Amino acid sequence: MASRKTVLYLGVWLSAWIITTADENFVPKAENVRWESLDFKTILVWTTNASDYKYTVSYHSEEPEWSQSPDCIRMSHSECDLTDHLRPLDRTYTVQIKTEPAAVDYDDDLEDFPHSPCPPFNPYRETNISAVNFTVEVVDESRVMVNITDPLSGVHELGKQLSLREIFKKDLKYKISYYKSGSTGKRDIISNSSTAEVSKLNAGQRYCFMVAAFIPSRPKSSQQGAWSIQWCTPRDGNVLQELSLAAWVGAVFILLTVLVIIVTVIVLCCKCCRQKNTSQSSAPV
């Protein structure tokens, strides 16, 4: 009976020791690993529930050897800027994140620590493109010139910040969408350069324009960049025709307010004068 109790206690103690050791040796993996890339500014981000671990990011493309960014070795934060390391741009990269305890026993095999993969990424074909800036110059009654500023990228070469035009070259085009004010129909044109003429406009009408970068050589899901803000031409003719409904309501409200103030002042002045005349007439001679 005593031997059974001894074996039972030993089994319980051994199980507790295994669980405790397993918890101590458990290293959580980085989760939700994803790319965030805008205009070739490319950052690898992930989430973690533990704070006392270090993370090392490795990447490679066509070469079998893994490379590392000096800024992303045994770091405590959960993002790694790989903008300056993903070269050439038109290449697919694979990354992995290794999680290590803050205190590492270097007698252990570091490759035994968990690695978190991430979907492959090609900056040239997948980076998001931001909204562009542009102006519209009226040439005559039926033509305007749309002048687009090529956005700057996150890429620097020889101390110079490259524009998207310098990276995409002839692959970069612009989609110009415009419509006549008051109409629901839109027209789109594709421009191969940063300057485009839009013709055959109706004289005396107001037109509104929006522009987005367009790279048809990319996959369909990433061909178009973000739309710009809307820019509208002035309408020829009476200025009153330009006023919107909100502007008319505001103008009427201001006029009514001024009218009420004038009437109130007149009434008060008349009342004061009347009271003054009454007091003078009732005074003894």
Query: Into which percent range does the helicity of residues fall?
Result: 10-25%
Annotation, overall tally of beta strands: 16
Order of the strands making up the biggest sheet: 4-3-6-7
Determine the N-to-C terminus distance. Answer: 133 Å
Task: Give the count of helical stretches.
Answer: 4
In short:
The protein is of the alpha+beta class and 285 residues long. The protein has 4 helices and 16 strands.
Q: Could you name the key traits of this structure?
A:
4 helices; four-stranded antiparallel sheet; flat; single chain; 16 strands; 285 residues
Can you characterise this structure?
With 285 residues, the protein is an alpha+beta fold. Helix content is 25%, strand content 32%. The chain is built from four helices and 16 strands. It has helices at residues 2-25, 123-126, 164-168, 245-282; strands at residues 31-38, 41-47, 53-60, 67-68, 79-81, 94-101, 115-117, 133-140, 143-149, 152-157, 160-163, 173-180, 187-191, 195-198, 207-214, 231-232. The strands form five sheets. The chain has a four-stranded antiparallel sheet with strand order 4-3-6-7, with no helix packed on it. The chain has a four-stranded antiparallel sheet with strand order 13-12-15-16, with no helix packed on it. Strand 8 and strand 9 (143-149) form a beta hairpin. It starts with a helix and ends with a helix. 15% of the residues are buried. Residues 12-24 and 237-243 have low confidence and may be disordered.
